[in-house]
Amino acid sequence: MPHTREPARKFLDESELKRYTAIILAAWTALVGGLLAADYRNEQHTAQELARVEVRAAYNKDLVYRRWAAGHGGLYVPVTRNTPPSPYLANVAERDISTPNGRKLTLVNPAYMTRQVHELGWDQYGYRGHITSLKALRPENAPDRWEAAALKAFEQGKEEVSGVELIDGKPHMRLMLPMFTEERCLKCHAHQGYKVGNIRGGISASASMEPFIAAANHNLIYSFAGFGTLWLLGTGGLLAGARGFNRRLAVQRAADDEIRHLKNYLANIIDSMPAVLVGMDTQETVTQWNRQAEATTGIAASEALGRPIAQVLPDFSPWIEALRTEVAQHRPASREKVFIDKQGERLYFDLMLYPLVANCVQGAVLRIEDVTERSRIQGMMVQTEKMMSVGGLAAGMAHEINNPLGIITQAAQNIERRVSPDLAANREAAAESGISLADLQVYFEKRKIPEFIASIREASARASRIITNILRFSRSADSVLKPASLAGVLEQSLELAANDYDLRKRFDFRNIEVVRDFATDMPDVPMVEIEIEQVALNLLKNAAQAINAVPGESAPRIVLRLTREEHHAVLTVEDNGPGMEEAIRRRVFEPFFTTKEPGIGTGLGLSVSYMIVTQNHNGLMEVESAPGNGARFIIRLPLEQENDHA
Amino acid sequence: MPEPYRVLFIDDEPMIRLTLSAYLEDSGYCVFEAADGVEGIELFSRHRPDIVLTDLRMPRMDGLGVISAIRELNQATPIIVITGTGNDLAQKDSILRGACKCLLKPFNDLSILEDAVARALRG
User: Fold this and answer.
1) The whole model's pTM is what?
2) Lower CB count within 10 Å: N or C terminus of chain B?
């Protein structure tokens, strides 16, 4: 499984789905709404058409009656209050006549007749008719605005004008057709200047739309119900579908999320591992390369995948081969503490190669763990254990050695004393033996006896010091820590250094400038005073010897510093000697490690000091140094100790 | 010439006895040697030394026993313990029982011993 990171798959999320559903719903509603609207318009249109048909029919009826009346040249009707003689016919001959019985009759022209009929019609069934002209003789026949516009349209050539207009606030279908001048019209209207064929005026008719609208609305209710049901069904289906889809998507999304989480989790586990983890297939090609592998080799995963393992891990390939053959038996194989030398350092690794056994997957995984640090620590621990067992042994041995050593020293001292002429007992014994002490002295000088005796004393004294140091090594539990002044201890050490036999022989400690940099608020520190004195003396001697070994340009100087940290008192011994290389600095506290010539120093001083500070006092000791920059030893002693010392 | 001081030296190691006694004798003391505590007590009673030097770890009777025994016989004689162990407890015990000083052997410089003896004898 290649170690890649895939981008998250794009899925419809819930809000997107909602949006799409809303869009479809809107479209559906618009469609249904549109259909409904179309239907409504259709109904309205039909209603209007029906109204128009009715009005036209009524109009035509009107016209027929008018023609009839005009064909007769008018009708004579009895004069009543409602039917007075028409003033507009004043210049028509024989307008008024009487019957033989004396009944008055007057001429009613078609217009008059139509008007009266219209009045009746209006009263009877709300049908309105209006004869009108742009040059109406009778003022009441004047056109209203709509009629005037229609009359003008007729003169333009339009043949019929109709439309829904509000009359008294109620919708009516108004229709108007032009009236052409005919022969018979000239009888009354010639004087107005009309010629046959002219448009004389028009008759407008109107009928209430209400019944038609009512019928249309009635239909509309059913349409509405029908379309509404359709819309509801459609919407219901859409929403149900959307919800179902959403649920499916949610499941899909959850599954995808889980896969992604798992993938990330696995990748995280593999990458977080602080060891190199490399997966390979049966051809030993890299199939998995974790972050630690990138860090260790400097090769990125993208480059490592697909390459043969020997190419990307050349340092380890010989062992990988060996492991490979073992792994062929389907068991993990490992090698511990394999080492390679890189840039002067020896690095240790634990290798493990294990075959992939599950799910019929072929291949193997190689794990490389850097155990350099651990090996070093283990090495140190083994050394320490050796030291401790040596320490234990040493304590016993030391006692055993101490005695004969002491005897050597004492006997040598006695010899020295007993060859001198100063002692009376010597002179007596010499006299009794018949020899001259002076001759003996000369003989001894010639044969360098005094020098031999001196070297016996010196050597045994040195051996004795070593023994003492070793004994100190193992005697830790016996000491009790008591608060004492570090400054005081340092002064004592300085005095010892100045008077120390060794130092005095090689050079004068007093030639070295000692700078004291003591903080003023130094508290007393719990310590075994003579042990810390020993440690300070050891450091002073080392500093002095270092300075003396390589004389530098500047005056020799040792700086003693006392400072206080939150939990520790800090003692620093700094010299301006030649300093140490890193390889030496690192090992300076190791027992028996010494850079001095054989015979000078034992290599125990610093290791004993280290033990005293760290084991006996639970403190810290370290050294900073660089070639040409002198050395600085830093000791930290806890200001408070738990009293579990015997 | 004044009488040399008499030193009783009790130690189970012959070579220690040899070297220490030789030195003290060269310094002008008269030294009696005993190899263990029992012999030591016996010599003490017989010779009444001016000062007793004793080791701690010995067979038959150890140094502490010697100190107690001597103190029963005599309160005044100075007793110096010369021991190879730096054991605080044993040293403290010795002082409690009546020794006036503890010295560590072996000596890098026997003049230290001589010094201690002289001082103890002066009181």
Assistant:
1) 0.39
2) N
